[in-house]
């Protein structure tokens, strides 16, 4: 069945236009068309409202009915917009080179990026940056960066790094310093990950680099990988960039945001290579119990899938709960577990993360060779940051004082949960880990049909920056994520702004 997305891409190819061209033309004509909007149209995630549809049809010189699939599936009619009474528009090249000699070539981004989205730092954040350039103060609840909110790196880590800097001037082994990997291996033993040696540890410039590396080494064009919805969008972006197809399974808000196992089952086919879990979860703050993890392991075992487990928040668990690494339940499967120090030790800027290969590595020998190749190609990760892994993972864990009653993260969670859910039209599942919450908006009460517009309007009216649910590959326009790292007095200001905004806001 031909879709709007199919016809849009066909018309764009016939006119030799890319997404960036449509955005530029829209801006020239005063039409509001953002990067995330056009990417979602091209990827088939959504279709435009009527005014945008007609803008696209006019720009691409096709019939709007044909573009929206309301007419027969024949080739796109061209020339439907008459331009005979006006002079042809000059290209940028002709403007720059009116004589026509030595025409300059225009360089555009790779088409591989056409369907890649990362709205955690997307159009809404771009607008916030413009406001700040004009001198406007923006209250940011959009990104999990502890340092700006007064969380300091433990003194012992700073001390140890400063004393080792002179030993960190050269490259390390591509997989990382021996001392760092040894400490990570011992941490894996405490987490009961099976069959892990020091050669199964890879350090990276944060977990982000390793997610990209692991997807690039695995996925061929058309391969599918199950990723949660909502997700941390880097997983979807990296899978897409690698040529794979991110297939999103639902996490169920009515069940504490646990993965919907039945939905996962429905979405597995012969092209599915792996599944991803994010536990503890970003953006929901959910922590998965052993029973849920075991069901996921059983599913992966039945369909011979790799398990990728993002556990960067595993040391930020509250309410006396315990984090369980899914790999500890799957000694017969091949698992890749990701973690790091950015969040637990408040050193996001140091960029130090790791991945651990465990379980049945024999079935992934060729894939592991790919990981080694890509690891070698980037030479090594940040050596000064590697030098403090042993210090960070040993001895007293300062983060523990933050996540108990009276601790900052615990008390800020208590405040934001109670304060936001006191606002009429806002509900939420109380997070058990990390430092995010994913509240739900009553879209009927506020007539909200576009969550990115909601975030932009909140930013412009109240100078408050949040991330809309669509930025986490959540399909409905009814959620947003808040970070509760700021102190309670700042969170109180933010909640008052949201409450006042919703008292009058309607789309």
TrEMBL record:
InterPro entries: Ala_Aminotransferase (IPR051926), Aminotransferase_I/II_large (IPR004839), Cro/C1-type_HTH (IPR001387), Lambda_DNA-bd_dom_sf (IPR010982), PyrdxlP-dep_Trfase (IPR015424), PyrdxlP-dep_Trfase_major (IPR015421), PyrdxlP-dep_Trfase_small (IPR015422)
This protein's name: alanine transaminase
CDD domains from the UniProt entry: AAT_like, HTH_XRE
Keyword Ribonucleoprotein: no
Domain HTH cro/C1-type as annotated: residue spans: 35-67
This enzyme's EC code(s): 2.6.1.2
UniProt region (Disordered), positions on chain: 74-104
